[in-house]
Amino acid sequence: MSQFFMNQKQQVVNDAIEGVLLSTPHHNLARLALGPQMRVVVRNDWDKSRVALISGGGSGHEPAHIGFVGKGMLTAAVCGDIFASPSVDAVLHAIINVTGEAGCLLIVKNYTGDRLNFGLAAEKARGMGYQVEMVMVRDDIALPDNPQPRGIAGTALVHKVAGYAAEQGQSLTEVAALAQQACDATASIGLAFTTCHVPGEARDDHRVPEGCSELGMGIHGEPGASTLKTQNSREIVAELVHQLTAKKTDGPLALLVNNLGGFSALEMAVLVREALHSALGKQVKLLIGPATLVSALDMKGFSLSVMQLDPPLETALLAPVEVSGWSPAMAPATVADLPAKLADSLQSFSPSDNPATAAIVTTICQTLIGLESELNQLDAKVGDGDTGSTFAAGARSV
Questions:
Q1: Interval 350-369 mean pLDDT
Q2: Distance between CA atoms of residues 205 and 308, nearest Å
Q3: Which of the four, 129, 237, 302, 308, has the lowest number of CB atoms within 10 Å?
Q4: Which whole-number Å values give the CA distances from 280 to 122, 235, 240, 299, 304, in the listed order?
């Protein structure tokens, strides 16, 4: 059974784009009048005096890429069908409509369809007299033997860095060089408990064994590197950090904690805590997230991306933007406990010592703790499913 909120499957991408255009907070987006099959979202305040930045790919990764169109980031995003690269013609029309004498940079995630279609469009545009350069994002380190590393959430960091350079009026050569530096400085790795629901199709909820997680599952549901026999947040983050530090170990880092779509805000907060308390934490100078920047529809998973910082990259990441999808970079905050008055200090009593009563209370508490899951399941039939957890928490306190 499909679990996807939509009207008509063939119109879901166009409907979603219209929804984004209607809700953009900066009122700075428009779509090119190219018909329903060529979906190009552009800045409506673009004057072609600076280097144009174009990215895109298959839909289903929202807010990427239209959520990054606006001042300080992308000039245009080209949207394909769900998980399918946009056509050569769509990319070409994006280039010729937003590119002036300053030229154009294509920022492409490293997948076969995107490489081919963006690359062919670039060749055609060059033949028409346009200056076009391209950088390929290959930040996924989950498959170490892969000759073509995939482009995942680190792509958003490259958008941000290149967008800053273009907004400063740098030349195409300079913008492309800084974007390539950002690519080279970035590494990402992800993990998921489940794959995603694709519109109109059932999800394989049994692919990852119960209680396990898949390391390196792709953002289109591609097979990962291995299955971990755990869903423990500390163990999982430790494994991801181990692999990231093997790739990017020197100096200060920017850390992006990216939701692949299906984790709750509560879970994402736990993951941030684990990441900043890990071996990586002391190197993190800038934190981005937790946020959904490059999703995989509703995949219950997340990714960590790190970028090795130098002054130009740090300045670029901190610059303000006018887009809906970016999460501002910041220095990690510190946890402070303020002195608090305790209610117990206002009471005076002397506890009794009664072994028989203590044994009864202990038995009751152990019973409630043991029945936590069963009571939650019963409560879920008529309520919010927390009775067992509430009783167990009280029993543990007693």
A1: 89
A2: 36
A3: 129
A4: 39, 14, 10, 25, 11
Q: What is the mean pLDDT of the chain?
A: 94
Which pLDDT value is given to residue 2?
58
158: which 2 tokens?
A: 């490259």
Q: What is the CA radius of gyration of the chain?
A: 25
Give 26: exposed, middle or buried? Use CB within 10 Å, 0-12, 13-18, 19+: middle
Q: How far apart are CA 347 and CA 165, in angstroms?
A: 63
- Which range has the worst mean pLDDT, 151-155, 162-166, 273-277, 364-368? 364-368
Nearest to 93 by CA among 45, 135, 38, 52: 38
The answer to whether residues 336 and 230 touch, using CB atoms and an 8 Å cutoff, is no
- pLDDT tens readout for residues 202-237: 766 788 999 999 999 999 999 999 999 999 999 999
Tens-digit pLDDT profile for residues 335-350: 999 998 887 666 677 7
Distance, in Å, from the CA atom of 220 to the CA atom of 378, rounded to the nearest integer, reads 36
Instruction: Count the alpha carbons within 13 Å of 357 in the hemisphere toward its beta carbon.
Output: 5
pLDDT tens track for 262-321: 999 999 999 999 999 999 999 999 999 999 999 999 999 999 999 999 999 999 999 999
| CA–CA dist 225, 392 (Å, integer) | 38
**Residues 230, 205, 377: CA angle, nearest 5 degrees:** 75
Residues in the chain, overall count? 398
The residue among 250, 104, 68 whose CA lies nearest residue 176 is 104
Active site residues: 220
Cα separation, 81 vs 91, in Å, equals 14
> How far apart (Å, rounded) are the C-alpha atoms in residues 158 and 111?
16
Query: Who's near 258: CB < 8 A, 6+ residues apart?
Result: 153, 156, 190, 289, 290, 291, 292, 293, 294, 302, 303, 304, 305
What is the CA angle 293-123-33, rounded to 5? 60
